[in-house]
Design brief:
CATH topology of the largest domain in chain B: Rossmann fold
Number of domains of chain A: 2
Number of helices of chain B: 10
Distance between the termini of chain B: 52 Å
Shape of chain A: rod-shaped
Oligomer: heterodimer
Number of strands of chain B: 7
Structural class of chain A: alpha+beta
Number of domains of chain B: 2
Radius of gyration of chain B: 18 Å
Largest sheet of chain A: 6 strands, antiparallel
Number of helices of chain A: 13
CATH superfamily of the largest domain in chain B: Response regulator
Helix content of chain A: 55-70%
Number of strands of chain A: 18
CATH class of the largest domain in chain B: Alpha Beta
Shape of chain B: globular
Strand content of chain B: 5-15%
Chain lengths: 637, 221
């Protein structure tokens, strides 16, 4: 893509160079063999002229006119700011210009079969006489047909047989706009046709071909812009192509079928709007905003376009004022170009700089064309702006094409980019999740460590410590020692069981306790009936609370084994409202719940443990048995 | 050689013990000696000695400690499965905690014995094991249910509906006797279920090992 844009840039520079070099060698007509180049003439004017009248078939020597010797090309200068105007050039003050050219008799041969005029310019018609006989007459009805067309006319054989040849050129024109005649060529028709064709190519066909091509490209850009409205450059390209097309029309069409005033209006205004479009196009390259200038340009150009509308308010044909209008546009272009040059230097934009160079070139060409329009330079020169604008278009095309390619590759990249971004986000999420989990785990670990420390300190540690002291003082019987150690081992087993992952399942916890204690119950000959019912899961059940539940039940069961002299124990669970009830019932001897120091302490112990996990304990004892109920809340805050 | 002791020995349950804790060895030997149907055929104190035992006469029940001074009892369990396919392997454990027991079962053990068991209990456990009974704690049952969910893997290592039912009862604290009553089956049937579940755990752990190895590229199909 980069290479393509460089190639385009190179082409645009080449075109600009070609335009520039043609500026220095604007004479396309080299003298071929057998041709005569006539540059001496006699000139006279007569008034009033007759712009549209059919010229007479023959004409006399016109001795009454005051002839002066002139060199061709010759022009009757044009008034830049006309004092009086009108909407119809046919009704303006007119003038007839006469050119009389003597061909030296030594050069008159039968080979001179054609006459070629590189340029003639008048707002009226032209007629050419050879030895007083009409050999060519234009059919000009409008303004624009007769300023940029070369002329090729046949010289009749009768004119050359006498070996004397006098040419008379008559041009009718509007006094304010004057007229001009280039040098005259005589020679074989084949040679002159070649010269004529070359000039037609440069003056008429190149503008026609380029503006048509750009119009097609502009249509493509328009299509692109319709689907992607934010690509303003595409729209600008389209608008420019339309303006360019309209602007170039007058270089190659004969507008006799289209109202002159409207045609002038389009031709002149389109050039101004091209300035405006180029200005905004430059914005898309340098991204520097000049809001006041933006508004000024658009406002001024809109106002100018409105004021010059060929309606009742503006009675003059704009063509009459075109030299003045072009001067104003040139001044505007000059300002815009200077601004762009400064900006492109400031933002160090290569593209912008290239555009500035192209604009400077076109400005030069514009000045040349203005001089040509007003015959202040070689009349036989060709209009260069329509050719120079190609470089401008190349600039546009480069930019538009690059945007287009960028859009395409952005589209292609979007998918992979999306994938990359997605996986990035995924990775970030995973990382932050991992981090969070690590933190959580660290906190859990720390909490668990603290809990185990507390358990060891208050439980096993203190039991072992007090027993150790007692043993050392000889205050303990071996049986008691075994009893203490047995309790310690039991508690250690409970602690280990509480650490096993039971999830939030209370029944697994109870089952584990039963599994542990079953051998002891069997050994004691106590029958256990297991009557658990499914209970809701307890979300709050963790190793800490599991251990409390296990200890409570173990205490209840070992108390039964120690004191109750029971034959059977029933363990049951049920869910009631928002609570789970664990009930342990024995058929033992029972005890007085309110009295008895040991029983009271055991009960308090149970209640403390239950309160620890937000539960309650209820004991009901009769002479034929005891029921202990542990109430646990299903949902804990 | 006199044939009478041989015949007597054949009728008895021949046990072997691999254990480094001298007290427990003594306690176990005493418990066996106190019975009339059990005999302690061989003893070892290290993994190497234990592996050497496998070259000798086959035992009916082998009791292994996992924490041997020169290696893991798991290796001995695996070796025994191959050398003595008819032997019921039992693991001795202080707490009978889930991770120890489960690993042993996966290696091929079918039961475990708590070290603080009463002598009568030791004898009873060995007899029960030889008769086809295997203990299964609620916590292990819960783990097995999670690992061998029906239709979670190949048929040979996923639980049947009945096996799941048995495990579910066990997690809720019901004893084998309770289950016999609840499922209306015989006690040996329940025992068979548990043994089958153990076998499936073993198969499952092997399949998982193969799967893991394949994932790591250690084996070719």
């Amino acid at each position: 893509m980069k290479r393509a844009s460089w190639a385009l840039r190179a082409i645009s520079l080449l075109l600009a160079y070609a335009g520039l070099s043609s500026c220095t060698s604007i004479e396309p007509d080299a003298a071929p063999r057998g041709t005569i180049h006539l540059i001496d003439a006699e000139f006279a004017t007569s008034t009033p002229g007759d712009i549209v009248a059919m010229p007479p078939k023959t004409i006399g020597p016109l001795p009454s006119l005051s002839w002066t010797r002139v060199s061709l090309p010759n022009a009757l200068p044009r008034v830049v700011v006309p004092s009086r105007g009108g909407s119809d050039f046919k009704k303006m003050e007119s003038i007839t210009m006469w050119y009389r050219i003597e061909v030296p008799s030594s050069q008159v041969t039968a080979e001179l079969t054609a006459l070629y005029l590189p340029r003639w310019h008048t707002w009226g018609n032209l007629a050419i006489y050879a030895n007083g006989a009409l050999i060519y007459s234009s059919v000009q009805e409008g303004i624009f047909g007769a300023f940029n067309d070369p002329l090729l006319a046949r010289v009749p054989v009768e004119s050359t047989v006498q070996r004397t040849l006098q040419l008379l050129v008559r041009m009718d024109s509007v006094r304010a706009t004057g007229g001009a005649l280039s040098t005259v060529w005589l020679g074989p028709v084949t040679e002159l046709r070649r010269m004529f064709d070359t000039r037609r190519l440069l003056q008429n066909l190149v503008p026609q071909i380029t503006s048509s091509i750009f119009l097609v490209l502009g249509g493509f850009a328009l299509g692109f812009w319709i689907r992607r409205r934010h690509e303003i450059t595409q729209l600008l390209f389209f608008v420019l192509s339309v303006l360019f097309y309209l602007r170039n029309l007058h270089y190659y069409i004969d507008n006799s079928w289209f109202p002159d005033d409207w045609f002038s209006w389009i031709t002149v205004n389109s050039l101004g709007w091209i300035d405006v479009v180029v200005y905004f196009f430059a914005y898309s390259l340098h991204r520097q905003r000049f809001r006041i200038l933006d508004r000024l340009l658009i406002g001024a150009m809109t106002a100018a376009s409105f004021v010059t509308l060929p309606l009742r308010g503006f009675e003059n044909s704009l063509a009459l004022f075109s030299p003045l209008a072009y001067l104003i546009f040139t001044a505007v272009s000059f300002t815009v170009t200077i601004l762009l040059t400064v900006v492109s230097w400031r933002v160090r934009s290569l593209e912008c700089g290239a555009l500035a160079i192209v604009l400077w070139l076109n400005l030069g060409l514009g000045v040349h064309d203005w001089l040509l329009q007003n015959w202040r330079t070689d009349v036989e020169s060709i209009y260069l702006l329509p050719i120079g604008v190609v470089a401008l278009f190349a600039m546009f095309l480069t930019t538009v094409l690059r945007r287009y390619l960028a859009a395409l590759s952005a589209n292609e990249k979007a998918a992979t980019l999306l994938e990359v971004r997605l996986s990035d986000r995924e990775r970030e999420l995973r990382e932050s999740y991992d981090k969070l989990r690590d933190v959580e785990q660290a906190q859990l670990l720390s909490e668990e460590r603290q809990r185990l420390m507390r358990e060891m300190h208050d439980g096993l540690g203190s039991a072992l410590m007090s027993s150790l002291v007692a043993v050392e003082r000889g205050q303990m019987q071996p049986g008691d020692i075994a009893q203490v150690l047995r309790e310690c081992v039991d508690d250690l087993k409970l602690t280990i069981d509480s650490l096993e992952p039971v999830g939030d399942d209370l029944l697994v916890l109870l089952a584990t306790l039963r599994y542990r204690l079953e051998p002891r119950l069997e050994a004691a000959g106590v029958k256990l009936s297991w009557e658990v019912q499914p209970v809701p899961t307890l979300a709050w059940l963790n190793p800490g609370s599991a251990l409390q539940i296990l200890r409570m039940l173990q205490e209840i069961l070992t108390n039964i084994l120690k004191h109750a002299r029971a034959h059977s124990i029933r363990v049951g669970t049920l869910a009631r409202e928002n609570k789970i009830v664990i009930e342990v019932t024995d058929d033992g001897v029972g005890f007085d719940v309110s009295a008895g120091r040991n029983a009271g302490r055991g009960l308090k112990n149970l209640q403390r443990r239950a309160a620890d996990i937000g539960g309650e304990v209820e004991i009901e004892s009769r002479s034929n048995g005891t029921s202990v109920r542990i109430y646990l809340q299903i949902l804990r805050k | 050689m006199d044939e009478t002791p041989n015949r007597n020995a054949a009728a008895r349950i021949r046990t072997a013990l691999v254990e480094d804790d001298a007290r427990f060895r003594a306690a176990f030997a005493a418990a066996i000696a106190g019975s009339n149907d059990l005999v302690l055929q061989a003893q070892a104190t290290t993994l190497q000695e234990g592996l050497a035992l496998l070259a000798g006469p086959v035992a009916d029940v082998l009791l292994v400690d996992l924490g041997l001074p020169d290696g893991s009892g798991i290796d001995l369990i695996k070796a025994t499965r191959t050398a003595w396919p008819t032997c019921d392997i039992m693991v001795s454990s202080v707490f009978g905690d889930e991770s120890h027991v489960l690993r042993s079962i996966e290696a091929g053990a079918v039961g475990y014995l708590l070290k603080d068991s009463e002598p009568e209990r030791i004898v009873e456990q060995v007899r029960s094991l030889r008769a086809g009974g295997s203990p299964i704690s609620p916590l292990i049952a819960r783990q097995v249910l999670a690992r061998l969910r029906p239709a979670s893997g190949p048929v040979e290592s996923s639980l049947s509906a009945r096996e799941s039912e048995v495990l579910n009862y066990i997690t809720k604290g019901f004893s084998y006797d309770d289950i016999v009553r609840l499922l209306q089956v015989s006690r040996p049937t329940v025992m068979t279920y548990v043994r089958r579940i153990y076998a499936k755990l073993q198969v499952n752990s092997k399949t998982e090992a193969v799967y893991e190895a394949r994932k790591l590229g250690l084996t070719r199909d």
